[in-house]
Amino acid sequence: MAIDFNSGANQYCDGAVTGLTADTIGTVAVWCRPETLHDGCLFWIGDTGAGDHWVRMYLTVGGKATMDCITVGWDWEYTIDDVFWAAGDLLHIAMTQNGAAPRFFVNGLNVAITLNAAASSS
């Protein structure tokens, strides 16, 4: 399962992944192409049900494989499992949902959400 978002000129976009349940959700991977990002590009993932559980990621681009910060929202609903970013490659952020909220809201540039094999039974 993969859903791609294209923000257009304003560098941001909105979208939701539906049809997921606490039984099927596992690790969520977020992919961003660094070459399409601008310095300070921001995208985040949150629970669209409660609207108050967010993972915010500020990216530093321009050849730097670094991130300014990764912050997890109020209830620490998500665990950051893995972050890697090779120059010219995709930014990969894998995180585990600790709560039961089945829907995710994505805001970013050219972002795709994919479920890993173990979690993609739906």
Brief summary:
With 122 residues, this protein is mainly beta. It has no helices and ten strands.
What does this structure look like?
This protein has 122 residues and is mainly beta. It has one domain. Helix content is 0%, strand content 48%. It has strands at residues 2-5, 14-17, 27-32, 42-47, 54-60, 66-72, 78-85, 91-97, 104-107, 111-115. The protein has a 5-stranded antiparallel sheet, with no helix packed on it. A 5-stranded antiparallel sheet has the order 2-9-4-5-6, with no helix packed on it. A hairpin with a 5-residue loop joins β7 and β8 (91-97). The chain starts with a strand and ends in a 7-residue tail after the last strand.
Q: What is the general shape?
A: globular
Distance between the termini: 8 Å
Give start-end ranges of low-pLDDT stretches.
1-122
Helix content: under 10%
Proportion of residues in β-strands: over 45%
What is the total tally of β strands? 10
Instruction: Write down the domain tally.
Output: 1
Instruction: Round the mean pLDDT to the nearest integer and report it.
Output: 35
Main beta sheet: 5 strands, antiparallel
Strand order of the largest sheet: 1-10-3-8-7
| Rg over alpha carbons | 14 Å
What is the tally of helical segments? 0
Secondary-structure class: mainly beta
String of helices and strands? EEEEEEEEEE
InterPro entries: ConA-like_dom_sf (IPR013320)
